[in-house]
UniProtKB/TrEMBL annotation:
Keywords on record: Signal
InterPro entries named among the record's database cross-references: Cpx_auxiliary_protein
Annotated spans, Disordered: 21-49, 66-138
Record bears the keyword Signal: yes
Annotated source species: Niabella yanshanensis
Domain of life: Bacteria
Annotated Basic and acidic residues bias: 24-41
Residues in the signal sequence: 1-21
Protein name as catalogued: DUF4890 domain-containing protein
Length: 138
């Protein structure tokens, strides 16, 4: 009789454990978790549309910035996927890419638009949120 009760208790314990294990949240893949599950835009840390809002961009500027951001996104992804690089080398290359991206972005925007964007980046940095390119963090 004791064996039957013990066996029933063990079966119940295992079935309850199995039920809870199935309800456990699934982990995101590393890359998705690192980026928050969405593509954020230039610099990887913020949403380009949000940052460019209120800059009164022309259609030509919008197209050029979109092309620039798409190009940079592809380059960043290729760099992330390059397993032959050390972490330090990858970090240096990312910094170079960010610098290059900011220079190209600056060439597309007018002086007033750049000033507005710098203010937005500074405000975002002060809030401690997604800060964008490293150059704007210093």
């Amino acid at each position: 009789m004791k064996k039957s009760i013990f066996l029933a208790a063990m079966i119940s314990a295992f079935s309850i454990t199995a039920t809870y294990a199935q309800d456990a949240p699934k982990e995101k893949p590393k890359a998705e978790a690192r980026r928050g599950g969405e593509r954020r835009g230039p610099g990887g840390g913020y949403n380009a549309a949000e940052m460019y809002k209120d800059l009164n961009l022309t259609k030509d500027q919008e197209a050029k910035l979109k092309d620039l951001n798409d190009e940079q996104g592809k380059k960043r992804q290729e760099l992330r996927n390059d397993n032959s690089l050390s972490d330090d080398t990858r970090r240096e290359k990312m910094q170079e890419m960010r610098k290059e991206w900011m220079e190209k972005e600056g060439a597309i925007l007018t002086k007033e638009q750049k000033e507005k964007l710098d203010v937005k980046r500074k405000e975002r940095m002060e809030r401690g949120g997604n800060r964008g390119p490293r150059e704007s963090r210093q």
